[in-house]
Every structure is written in structure tokens, then in C-alpha cells.
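User: Fold this; C-alpha cells only.

Assistant: Input:
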Amino acid sequence: MTQPETVEAVDVCVERILQRCGAALRVATPLGLGKPNGLLNALYRHAQRESNFSLTLFTALSLTRPAAGEGLQARFLKPFLSRHFGDDYVDPAYAVDMRRGRLPGNVRVHEFYLQSGAYLQADGVQRDYISQNYTHVARDLVKRDINLIVQLVAVRKSGDGVRISLGSNPDVTLDLLDRLEAAGLPRPMLVAVEHPDMPFTGGGAEVSASMFDVLLREAAPQPRLFALPREPVDDTEYAIGLHASGLVRDGGTLQIGIGSLSDALVHALTLRQRENARYRAMHEALDPHGAHHALAQELGGLAPFSFGLYGASEMVMDGFMHLHRAGILGRRTYDDMALEQAVADGRIASPLPAHAAETLYATGVLPETVDAKQMARLKRFGLLPEEAALRTDEIACPDGRRLPCRLDSAQARAAWSAMLEGRALRDGRYLRGAFFLGSHDFYTWLRELDGEDWSGLDMTRVSDVNQLYGGRERLDALQRRDARFFNICMMATPLGAVVSDALEDGRVVSGVGGQYNFVAMAHALDDGRSALMLRSTRTAHGRVHSNIRWNYGHTTIPRHLRDLVITEYGVADLRGRSDEDCVRAMLAISDARFVDGLVAEAQDAGKLPGDFRVPDAWRANTPEHLRAALQPFHADGLLPTFPLGSDFTEVEQRLLPALGWLRDHAEGWGRRLRLLAALLAPGKAVAGETEALQRMGFGPVRGIGERLQRRLLRTALRRGGRDSVSGTE
């Protein structure tokens, strides 16, 4: 096997690239974690120095650390950022300059998915953004004359050199190379950059080392992998997660994204499994009239999981780790149509029972005659021992058994049944993903997977995960039975259109990514459903706004693909419903403060009759009712602020609500006046106040500015969470 040239210095790697590719680089590099920031920064610095050199970068999700800011925010964030990312972490320099509008004229960066909200004011980024489905990226890159691909990888030693895994991002690289070859275009230069902490994932992610021209293995210690800080979950998000969890069917398939809404869903599924009585009580508290209970019974269920779930998700994140640990993510799928069908029909299970050969033969899993090809297949799935050997007309097993190669007699099948009884099926997948991103704990879990747990995770190309095309549609559909695709959106209309990626003036918040893929797949699968989750309101500039808008000037998911929409107030089932039914269903899960205005707009548009009156139950859709419903479960400790673990210390977790209280009261004159009143009468000291002030670096007070900051923080610690301010627009 040909091995790539190994170099140990970034500068040497840049030299090799320039020798091969010349003065015009057109670079493709993975989204998120798969970027080799050090190498990209070296290429970017070269472009800054050499005006006759051009660098065009095609990528997505260029991750940068949060800015520490100023004042109290800086006092909180600087120590946290240092601890979480490490002082030696290297941001992609081009991304920092993109945000500031400082890219040189000889550098262009085209991203198809942006770090959410980071570039709303960056005109250059907005102009160079490319809107595409995740599955179309490789197709479109073929026309861009890519001459360099760089990727962060995991490396293991092997007898004849090294083994390489694409680690976090097999998503687009493999598809792009296949498409370039099919188009008869030159193969770009491929550079792998080893990171010692990158998990070595298998399945489609493990590739031949000969795929790469150069392997950069730096001798110096590497910065930590970028890890997302885990987010707190509030009552709104918990309610959405609880509603969503009831739509998941035991034995089905799960796709989820990232963020606090997904964390809430994962925690709710875990409660369904481990605290089922209290979990059901939460549903009753949120839905006392049973309006959504029937839908949960029809589409999912509230009982614990017996068969477990299979994960098929473009993104693999912390939530899947927690579901696997809870025994929920455990349904295994097999890349063999006959075997998968037999398992799906419940005709066989692992470990295999007595007389298994009869069923396996009847379902086509066992062939009529075992030849060399069939023998390799049976070994792969654990239906023959690895050491078994094929003879002229029989199979020699390591325990001395002799099995007939022909299975067309009852006697032959009886001999096979004796061998098969108690054997476990092998090479089943419990999770398929195209890229991963998460916490440091998650990366540790991935690195420590072994045996069937390691092989059961298949990191593979995005075209295998996000769609049903490619020649194995029947098998994909069978494996993804009872699929539930959960994605997050920003706004929705009562007619079922959804806004997820951009504002109505065209500015991009994030990107479409794979959301459209999963919505379309839900409609393509007979038993699949798409569920889009959103908070019913948002607060901006001191005022509360509805996220259910009668109309909006941008759409991500069109209304003809409407399916399930979830807010904290319930689930709207829109599939196949009339416009009037959709409007009623959406208004039933809207915030009560906005429902009258939405009704009036619907009546003006002729979508509701003129004599329509708002049902009393809808008037209860308020934050106050939500808090009251969930309060007993907070008291029981079932709804923690950080359900999937926290990267913050206990003191920092006490500071977060206080800093949030200050942020909320800094917007709007009414809130600022209440903040001033609170400063004048902050209230009594609270437990942990001294430790919190110390964590924020407040020792002996120096100067008026520091005195004011300390007083603001002390007031927030004492008042945070007690005051509620509401206003609507």
C-alpha cells in the first residue's frame, strides 16, 4: 500500500502545496471540527503577504471562540474560555477577519453554513455565502476546479504504515472525490493533518492512507479540539422536548440536531426510559385536557423503550452518547436486505434461538448453497465463526463441527441450527452520522469506544445519511423505519411554512444545511415524520415577539411540506390538513398574548370564519402556566439546568442566571428603570454571594467603574430570577 509523504512542520507542508498547486489555490475543507486551522492559517498568511497569490476557500461552519467582551461579561468569560478551549487554541484567522470585514482582496471564502448569527453584519460574508442543501455541496464543488483538499484526521499505526480515519468529517470529502473521478476531472492534492485527540471512527470514515499525498504530523503538542460548551435548558425548552419525546416510536429511528432544544428532547427520552411514572406526570401537567395525548399514542408513545432506537443523523453529538448510555440507542441495523427484513419482521433476534436455521433459510438469510462469497457474508454478520473454513462440500468449524454447504434439506438445517443457537448477530449499526461535534466529554467517549460499540457507529458520507438515493433505497427505508426527524427553526406561519436559516431581507443567520433533506425524506418514507421545533416567542430590545407570524418574507421549508410543528404549548399535526385546520392547530400552540392578533389576520385572509372565537384552553398558553406546571418536577430534581452535564463550575452556574438577569434588564427604558430601582434596594445577601464575587475577580474595590460593576452583580445575584418583565409587540 502506498503511504503518503510524511512531514513534521507546517511550513514544509505549505511548501509542498505551493510546489504542486501553484499560485492559485482553490481549497475545499470540511465544516466544523474537520478543519486543520494551523495549516489553513499558514496558507492565509501567505496570501496576506503575497498579493499575486490567490486563495479561494470552500467550506462551512468555521468555528471561532466566543469573544470575551467587556465589563462583567469579560470577567466571567475570560477564565472560562481559557479553561475550556486552552490558551493555545488557534482560531481560523480568515474567519476572524471575515467577521471584521478585513479579508484581503486576493482571498475569497464561500461557506454554505455559517456559525449562527455571527455574520449578520458582515456584508462580504453575506455576499459570498452559497445557499445549498448539504447533499448538493459535492456536486457543486465539481465545477469549482478544486485543486487542494485539506482535512484534520485521526491516525493509527499499522503493520505496513499507518491507518487513517477521516474522524469527524467523512461527510463531503468522499462524495467529492467520487464525483470528480466520474466527471473525468483531475484529482486534487489531498493533505491529511493528524490531530492526536481526533477520535478514530470506523465505517465509511476509515480510508486507505494512499488516498492522501501528504500527511502532516507535527512534532509540537497540538491545541485541544474545538468543543462546544453545553447549554442550559429552561422551562420553554423542556416543554418542547417533552412534547417531542412522545412522538418517538419504540423500535424507530431518530435524527436530532444540536442545541438546548435537542438536549431537552434527549433528557425527556431518558426520563421516559428511567423515570416513566414521573415522565407521564409531566405530560399530564403540560396537557391536562389530553389534547396532545392522542397524537403521542398514534405516532409514538409514552412507555419505556423495549426495542430501542436507531440513529441516522447528519450530525452526531452529545445527545446520542447519552441515549446510548441509557440503553435507548440500541436497535441495530444490518446492511443486508434479507437479514434486516427478518429482524424488522420480528422473525429473528440476537442471540439466535433454537431452530434458527429454519427461519433464516425461509427468509433468505441463509442461502441454498454456501460458496466463498456467501461464506464471507455469513461471517460478517456472525452467522459463521471467523475461523470456519470452506471445504469441497462442507464447512469446517473451529469446534470440530462439519456443516453441509447445501441447506435444502431439513437434516442440513438442523445441523446449522445446532451451531447457530445462542450466537449473536454481528456488524450491526446503532448510529450512522456524517459529522460530529460536541463537548470534550463526548470526544473522550468516542475515543474510548471499542468492540461492537465502536463498530456500531458508522461515520460515513452525507449522501448516505441525508437522503434515500444511491441504489440502496429499499434497505435505507427499511433501516430508517418509523423515522422521526427533529430539527430547529426560528419562525413558522399558521399555514405551515417555516423559517430556519435567514431573515426576510435575505441576510443569512446560519444556512439550510440538511434540514430540507430530512423534511423531504420524512415525506418520502411511508412511516417517517418531520418535526420542527421552535420557541413560541423571542425577546428583542426589551419586548416579546411572537415566532408564529402570519407571513414572513423568507421561507426555508415551504408550506406544501408542512408536517409536525412543536412549541412549548404542544404539537400541531399539519400533514394533509386543510388551511383552516392548519391555522387552528398552529394557533392552539401559540402564545396567548398573540393569538387574538393572529386570529384577526387569519380572518382577514379568509382562512378562519368571521364568527370564530378563541377557545378558553388557548388562553392558558402563557409562561406563567408553564412554570407552574413544571415547578414540582424542578423541586424533584428531574429538570436540571444542565441535563447533559456542564462545562461550568458550580459557582459559574450560580452566576449565569444573574448575568442573564442583567442582560435582560439592560434592554428597554422600562427595564432599565426597574434595574435602577433594584440597584438602590438590592435586597438581602444570598448564599454563595462571596464566592461568586471572588470568581468574578472582585477583591478590594478600585475606582467608580469597578464599584458600579460589583454593585450590579450583587444586585443581580440577589434579584435574578425573582423579577419578571413582559411586554408584547
